[in-house]
């Protein structure tokens, strides 16, 4: 499974990186590899302040652990961690949805009556209710 992590560096992390520049890609790769995953891409961003975009492959438990360790380090803020779906997965989801919907639809459904008929029936029920003839 592929995952994307986007985050911004905290001001303390930016200050520390300015004083002692280090290769954050290598640090991210070590973390992901230690969890049993694989780093696919690592990018820097400036859209909402200095940050990172990391794409990795990992099972769900390892991915969650990577996220928790990354956040717990205190260098990241505004972290978003999202599962990425490929076209095969999305196609399989759509097929499964159609299968489920097919099982949940009533097979003995009667044809829909006209809107005018439904409105007149509602009016009759309201009138009976006001006269005390209908208790529902």
Describe the structure.
- The structure is a single chain.
- This protein has a domain at 2-84: ACT domain (Alpha-Beta Plaits), CATH 3.30.70.
- Helix content is 50%, strand content 24%.
- The chain contains 5 helices and 4 strands.
- A hairpin with a 5-residue loop joins strand 2 and strand 3.
Looking at how many chains there are and whether they match, the oligomeric state comes to single chain
Q: Low-confidence spans: pLDDT under 50, at least 5 residues?
A: none
Beta-strand portion reads 15-25%
Rg (CA only): 28 Å
Assign the CATH topology of the domain at 2-84: Alpha-Beta Plaits
Number of helices: 5
Characterize this entry briefly:
By secondary structure, the protein is α+β, with helices and mostly antiparallel strands. It is built from 5 helices and 4 strands.
Could you outline the blueprint of secondary structure elements for this entry?
Elements: E1 2-9, H1 11-19, H2 24-34, E2 38-45, E3 51-57, H3 60-72, E4 76-84, H4 87-104, H5 115-131
Features:
24% strand; four-stranded antiparallel beta sheet; 5 helices; 136 residues; alpha+beta; Alpha-Beta Plaits
